[in-house]
Amino acid sequence: MDIRTCVFVLFGLIGLACAEPVKYIDCGSISGKVVLVDIKPCATQPCQLHKGQSYSVNVTFNSAVESQSSNAVVHGIVAGLPIPFPIPVQDGCKSGIQCPIQKQQKYHYVTALPVKSEYPSIKLVVEWELRDDTKNDLFCIRFPVQIVS
Ligand SMILES: *[C@@H]1O[C@H](CO)[C@@H](O)[C@H](O)[C@H]1NC(C)=O
Questions:
Q1: 29: nearest Cα among 133, 144, 129, 147
Q2: Quick one: CA dihedral 6, 8, 13, 18, positive or negative?
Q3: Residue 95 CA, ligand 1 centroid: distance in Å
Q4: Whose C-alpha lies nearest to ligand 1, atom 7?
Q5: Which of 22, 107, 110 to mutate to test the pocket of ligand 1 (most atoms within 8 A of CB)?
Q6: Is 7 inside a domain boundary?
Q7: Distance between Cα 57 and ligand 1 center (Å)
Q8: Largest CA distance in the chain
Q9: How far is Cα 89 from Cα 114, in angstroms, rounded to an integer?
Q10: In a domain? residue 92
Q11: β-strands 54-63, 123-131: how paired?
């Protein structure tokens, strides 16, 4: 390829890198498999969460089980300790998921993550679980964030 194609490809790659989905680690999704985690707006990695703002979290996953219910449990891990991180809607069935959950189906779990102004300005790891009827995780993800003013 010539130099122009090369530059074009390079910029294309940079463009992809900027719109990159959130990097996460799986912390034990046994009733499902995570496909993609998207947080908006999140221009940098780790995501910078501004106090007083709300973020949209969109987790695409495939279910491996049937479940009537789905409940989100969110923790902030600070200095190794999990601290409950309250979210307005815990019910996954009211967060973009049509329940009952069917086996081998793809779902988008979409909810809001409000960042309270009284939160400290720290870096932490968010652990987000969505539990099925038997309290197994449809997904469990961990991703780093930075809370900023
Ligand atoms: C969630 O993410 C999926 C995959 O990118 C997308 O198809 C879907 O439209 C998103 N849903 C919302 C409400 O943003």
A1: 129
A2: positive
A3: 12
A4: 108
A5: 110
A6: no
A7: 10
A8: 57
A9: 11
A10: yes
A11: unpaired
Rounded mean pLDDT for each run of 10 residues along the chain, 149 residues in total: 52 51 93 96 93 96 98 95 94 98 98 94 96 98 96
Residue with tokens 């979290």: 57
Q: Domain range holding 92? A: 21-148
pLDDT computed for residue 3 by the predictor = 52
CATH number at residue 39: 2.60.40.770
What is the number of other CB atoms lying within 10 angstroms of the CB of residue 47? 21
Number of domains the chain is built from = 1
Q: Can you tell me which atom of ligand 1 is nearest the CA of 21?
A: 5
- 134 found inside a domain: yes
**Of 49, 66, 69, 68, the residue nearest 57 (C-alpha):** 49
Q: What is the pTM of this model?
A: 0.86
- 3-class DSSP state of 70: coil
CA atoms of 33 and 62, how far apart (whole Å): 5
Residue closest via CA to ligand 1's atom 2 equals 58
Give a yes or no: residue 120 inside a domain: yes
- pLDDT for 14 equals 47
Distance CA 108, CA 28 (A): 18
